[in-house]
Amino acid sequence: MLTTEDFDYDLPHELIAQTPIEKRDTSRLLVLDHQTGAMADKHFYDIIDQLNPGDAVVMNDSRVMPARLYGVKPETGGHEEVLLLRNTTGDEWETLMKPARRATVGTKVVFGDGELTATVTKELEHGGRMIKFDYDGIFLEILEKLGEMPLPPYIKEKLEDPERYQTVYAKELGSAAAPTAGLHWTKELLEKVQAKGVKLVYITLHVGLGTFRPVSEDNIEDHKMHSEFYQLSEAAAATLNEVKANGGRIIATGTTSIRTLETVATKFNGEIKADSGWTDIFIKPGYQWKAVDAFITNFHLPKSTLVMLVASFTGRDLILNAYKHAVAEKYRFFSFGDAMFIK
């Protein structure tokens, strides 16, 4: 039985990146061969040397919503912070509220000058609340005006340019957090990759905060993943099947792309087909990979489901050894940190 503690590692606090690096593709890249265990220290722009003509690079084009709202309860004048997680139906949203204990069913919160109001309709676990919004106009336009970018809690610095927490190809609004492995790509580097004969494929998975929720159970089998919405188009499926048929590799940018591809391949017995829906796939050691041949990923939080996902591809000892190397070499960790290429 694998426990949560089996995926812990020592991380000096100063290695948690607080700000994005000046030029996206100059971040460092640890290349790990999961067959031999060989490691090489590179820069992200060197990724092009790891890609072959006929491969496909898959990217998640989800865009982060300005999902953090600050409001006031008209009854008491108390302040309330609301973090939007996902839109369930109509104007109803699953959210996290702070302070949650005072946000009981029926509680009203007003945002801005009253152009947006919310009513708590249901209490969920972990401080979660279902709320229903009331407004005139277009919700996403109001959100753009009133909302803030929800940076992860371990980032204490203010982000000067909110676009640095978006990938350069972010398009489909809907994530509560960025698919951060994609933050290293620049438009110029993607053009070079394409010029080399590598296919660029875009899919969508709207990242929920459940991805980052710490695993509280000792036995990892008892952990329940939150659902996230994904979409894979006919065009993307056709390209990926063509790449596979011609002997190319499917290379995922980030764990969100991995979860989408593996969800679809699991659903269709190893085939990739156009599909959309909700996934709560938990990829952990023992999982049989079906679609992805190699991937780019950042360095993840100790004891997180994301470390477990990567360990299921490399083996636990190898990935913890790579993390140890990254700590010794002072790589930058987490959302604004450096990357790995695992092949």
Explain how this protein is built:
- This protein has helices at residues 139-146, 187-195, 234-245, 254-267, 305-314, 316-328, and strands spanning 28-32, 39-43, 56-60, 62-64, 68-72, 79-89, 92-98, 108-111, 116-123, 128-135, 172-175, 199-205, 228-232, 250-253, 275-279, 294-298, 339-342.
- With 343 residues, it is an alpha/beta fold.
- It folds into two domains: 4-64 and 161-342, QueA-like; 68-146, Thrombin, subunit H (Beta Barrel).
- Helix 5 (305-314) packs across helix 6.
- The radius of gyration is 20 Å and the shape is globular.
Summary?
This protein is an alpha/beta fold and 343 residues long.
Secondary structure tally, helices: 6
Spell out the CATH superfamily of the largest domain.
Answer: QueA-like
Radius of gyration: 20 Å
How many structural domains? Answer: 2
At the fold tier of CATH, the topology name of the largest domain is QueA-like
Q: List low-pLDDT spans.
A: none
Q: Largest sheet, described in full?
A: 9 strands, mixed
Mean pLDDT: 94
Topology order in helix (H) and strand (E) letters: EEEEEEEEEEHEHEEHEHEEHHE
Strand content: 25-35%
Find the structural class using helix and strand composition. alpha/beta
